[in-house]
Amino acid sequence: MERSLMAPGFANSILLSGIAYYVRPLLKGALQDAPPSNLPPRPVTVISTVDGDLSHKDIVDEITRFLAHDDVYSEAFASSIVVQVPTGITPEVPTGLITNEQDGLKSAYLHFSIANSTETLLPSGPYFVHDDGIYEAWRLYPDELDAFEIAVVPEATESARTFVPLNMLNPEGLWKSIAVPSRLYAQKSKRLPLAGTRVSVKDNFKLAGIKTTMTNRAFTELYPADEDTAEYIETLRNLGAVIVGKSKMSSFAAGENPGDWIDFPCPFNPRGDQYQSPGSSSAGAAAALAAYPWLDYSVGTDTAGSIRAPAACNGVYGLRPSFGAASLKDVFRLSRWGSRAYRLACLGLA
User: Fold this and answer.
1) Can you give the pTM of this predicted structure?
2) How far apart are CA 29 and CA 160, in angstroms?
3) Distance (Å, rounded) from C-alpha 218 to C-alpha 125?
């Protein structure tokens, strides 16, 4: 079911109880017998069941689990419950209005959705409904340390092999917003060990559909958006990783102190009073990972300390693998001799 949402008046960002959300404009499912509506997207909780047997306690238990394990889910999504079952299954669930404030479930209206098969059941979790369509809920986090050059989201298709810039500010209009999907949408497996893992990418890696800036204005003016994604990033995506943005780097990955960042402002170091140097080159990657608990990993590059120094400055671990351990195809390198000097590296929390 591949349909972009282009409804008149549709808003891609929603504010719920002070939390900002991005409604990914890709149809994921549909409600049964839902009347057309000019109302904005509304939050719902989708609970998928193979056999259709779902009690009031089951619903409350699921919501309790969502609140405990997912930073995207909030109580606002419990206002309406969508029970999804495969074709041919009759749901056996409570009907109408559910009220149980003691269990944390308030005025939850029940709706129903039918999937073509058990394989196409939506992952249970937070969604938005517009008219009869069901859409994913992504939480918008503010980049308060200015660590990202560009926020990105996958294009609104099921294959989503290219990216689009996410041009949104936080509700106060001060910081760019970074969108992350619900962790409930992904389930790790042997085939997808990184399913749902949120990753930032240094801005010398190509992402299809996005300009690489190298944090340099002149470079940005010379080259269009990239047509390909760096091979290593594609490998991560094929393992289930979610790319959320391109992190800042010192211009052309050269060694620069914070006062030397002219074309784009230097990221802030989250440690201490936030005015310590974040290091050079992969500074944005390290600062973002140290500051934002919603980010899992940052990918960078290291020739002469470009991962190791920022990692030390910001208080995270930096891994610099041996040359040849990972592909450098479609990665802009520090110098013409980069094929032997440049190494891909990864940042991780302790």
Assistant:
1) 0.89
2) 17
3) 44
What value does the mean pLDDT take over residues 191-202? 96
The CB density around residue 81, as the number of other CB atoms within 10 Å, is 23
User: What digits encode the pLDDT tens for the residues 86-129?
Assistant: 877 776 766 554 545 545 455 456 677 766 655 688 999 999 99
CB 20 within 8 A of CB 170: yes
* Interatomic CA distance for residues 265 and 307, integer angstroms: 19
Q: What amino acid is encoded at 231 in this protein?
A: E
Q: What angle do CA 181, 72, 188 make, to 5 degrees?
A: 55
- DSSP single-letter state for residue 77: G
Q: How far apart are CA 265 and CA 176, in angstroms?
A: 13
Show the tokens assigned to 193: 């060990």
Separation between Cα atoms, residue 319 and residue 56, nearest integer Å: 48
Residues with a catalytic annotation lie at 202, 281, 306
CB-CB neighbours of 38 under 10 Å:
9
Which residue intervals of the chain are DSSP H helices? Answer: 56-69, 217-222, 231-238, 283-291, 308-314, 338-341
Torsion over CA of 247, 253, 256 and 259, rounded to 10 degrees?
-40
Going by DSSP bridges, is the β-strand pair 80-86/177-181 parallel, antiparallel, or unpaired? unpaired
DSSP 316-339: -EEE-PPTTSS--TTB--SSTTHH
If we measure between CA atoms, which residue out of 242, 253, 254, 269 comes closest to residue 146? 269
Report pLDDT digits (tens) over 301-334.
888 888 899 999 999 998 888 777 888 889 887 6
Lowest mean pLDDT among 26-35, 63-72, 138-147, 148-157: 26-35
Classified as helix, coil or strand, 261 is: coil
Spatial CB neighbours of 113, under 8 Å, sequence gap ≥ 6: 29, 30, 31, 32, 46, 82, 83, 84, 85, 122, 134
Per-residue DSSP letter, 34: P
Residue given tokens 């419990």 in the structure block:
78
Amino acid at 271: R
